[in-house]
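Weekly structure sync, notes
Attendees: PL (lead), two postdocs, one rotation student
Agenda item 3: pending single-chain targets
PL asked that the sequence for the first pending target be pasted directly into the notes so everyone works from the same version. It is reproduced below exactly as submitted, 492 residues in total.
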Amino acid sequence: MAPIRVLVVDDAAVLRRLVARALTSAGGIDVVGTAGDGEQALEQVERLAPDLVVMDLEMPALDGVGAVRELRRRGWATPVVMVSTPTDDGAEATLRALAAGATDFFPKPSRASSPVEALARVRDGLVPVVRALAGHAAAGGPGRAPASSVHVGRPVVPPLAPAAVVPPVVAPAPSAGPAAVVRPPVVHVAALHPPVTNAPAPARPVAPAAPAAPAPAAPAPSRPSPSTGRGAPGEPVVPAPRPGSPARPPAPAAHAPARTAPVAATAFPAASPLAAAAASPSGPPPGRRGAGLPAVVAVGSSTGGPEALARLLQALPADLPVPVVVTQHMPPVFTRQLAVRLDRLGPLAVREAEDGDDLRPGRVLVAPGDRHLVLRRAGADVVVQLSQAAPVNFCRPAVDVMLRSCVDVHGAGVLAVVLTGMGSDGRDGCADVRRAGGAVLVQDAETSVVWGMPGAVASAGLADAVLPLDAVAGAVASACRRGAPALAGGAR
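Predicted structure, written out during the meeting:
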């Protein structure tokens, strides 16, 4: 197999050498060029057509955000991994870069005790990401997208029709060894999801959204990195297929409406606990939640997750009658800035979770970096408890920890949503959700940056539905709107 060809971009020569040495020492990766600023990076990409670019954020002449934006404007779908500073300003710039089209990011090693430790941190954290994201060089050829797919500075493909839900993928859950990957078919039936119209008045001020990230190229299988919290070593990482253009579908409108018309019902399989909810439009009597109706929506994501979360939360209605909890694999500081950005983009109130936060309908709580998000009962309420217990799946926060606590509190009233990400975090938690009678939705391979986490859930036969990203919000709203609003923590 040909080595992965990487371009390293940083204005500091010492960091260029550190990153280049870390990558080449891992084997199977060639650093084919370096650049000292964004303008040089653009020239090198045109000349070298690398499989992947590792780029600093803060540079003279043209910074990382501007360089990514220009690459996408020119039609290059080459994966770009940003190297960012773990500060508020660095995290905010990182999220802007992801919105402009960067594929992923890696925090610069801080407070390393020696050059040897700094080298090891970069190698252990960055190499798995590079291997996972650069597989398109072997599978899909050059990194430039077709000219016809370039729109508003982003490589795009025509919008996907909303998908019909497919039955769960029946495959045995893995035991000792990795499971074979099973990619379920996605049947696109636009009639299942008529267009949603906007109601007149927003419930809360909504700032315009930043542009959505373009599609990264399909990654290659690799070992997730313990140091970045993106999955356990040895777990299979399933690259998302990119037939034709490797770009992702276009972004939604400038901002999500604060209120939407009723969402058309999603056709869930008869065996799904969501089918009963969808079959009863009138819902249960006020103050009671019927069988199959979620009491909480729990979302897990990793690689590609920030932009997937933005598109999901933008499309959810402001009057969503249940709370939402989110675990995104990210370091401290970055999760706080992620919550700030998500709060600006859509109609729901989003914040980074704190100890003792109570769950409220329509509010989204994001697990902070390096803390597990756990739900517990406090009298009639349900509150958040943050934990520094040992990492699970080499992740803290971990999706499995969040899902298991949701099941402990709400039993069958859990709707789990697993979005794009490396590794298999969330698979075991989804098994607990299904055993308790809850429901599971996963993002499909075609719209995932990496079909690792959702693929692991689908391959284990745990998914009630496998959906393109832009159909997930409709399925969530459809499931949650079949009953009267109820406070989290109230009687089920």
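Discussion points:
- The radius of gyration is 21 Å.
- The chain is about 30% helix and 15% strand.
Action: rotation student to compare against the earlier draft before next sync.
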